[in-house]
Structure formats: structure tokens, C-alpha cells
Design a protein that fits this description.
This protein has about 100 residues and is an all-alpha fold. The chain is globular and about 40 Å long. The termini are far apart. The chain is built from five helices and no strands. The model has no long low-confidence stretch (mean pLDDT about 75). It has one domain. Helices cover about 65% and strands about 0% of the residues.
């Protein structure tokens, strides 16, 4: 029973790693942490919905960091395009 669970976790992690390269995963984490980057911008660049981003973040970062990120994202109107007063027309990074 435990071996099956471990195998499922490893399969999920493998498929996660195969679909995106390491620099893509790092960029995804960076975009998710940025306050001004909406989930819509992440969807346009990587094709991931908000729930998929949350699931990926859960797998990619530690539990404590994930909980901190979720608490932060839930309070941010800037992460959700529908809640924004201004409508950004494209993603602009910090550079």
C-alpha cells in the first residue's frame, strides 16, 4: 500500500519534470510569487490554469513556503485579473 503511494508520487513528479524544463519551472515559481503577475499571464505563457499553478507550486516548493504563498495570493487582488481596477495588456517582468 505504501509502495503504491510512493510510486504514484514519483510518477507525478516525473511527468511534471518531463513536461517542463528546470528553467521553465523556476520561471513559473518566480511568476507565481510576483504580486503584479496575474494568473492570466501565467496561463498565456505556460497554459496552466490557476488550480494547475497551485498544484504545481504545492509540488515544487516546501509545505511551509506553499502555505505562505497561498496566504499571500488569496489577499492579492493583483493576482486575479477580474479584481483589478487597471487592466494590464501584457506581462511586464521586473527587468
Amino acid at each position: 500500500m505504501i509502495k503504491r503511494k510512493i510510486d504514484k508520487i514519483l510518477l507525478r513528479k516525473k511527468s511534471l519534470d518531463e513536461s517542463m524544463q528546470e528553467h521553465d519551472l523556476n520561471r513559473l515559481i518566480e511568476m507565481a510569487w510576483q504580486d503584479r503577475t496575474t494568473f492570466d499571464a501565467i496561463y498565456l505563457q505556460y497554459g496552466l490554469t490557476e488550480n494547475q499553478v497551485k498544484n504545481r507550486m504545492r509540488k515544487l516548493i516546501s509545505k511551509k513556503a506553499y502555505n505562505r504563498w497561498r496566504k499571500r495570493v488569496q489577499k492579492r487582488a493583483t493576482k486575479h485579473k477580474k479584481k483589478l481596477y487597471h487592466k494590464p495588456n501584457r506581462f511586464q517582468g521586473p527587468w
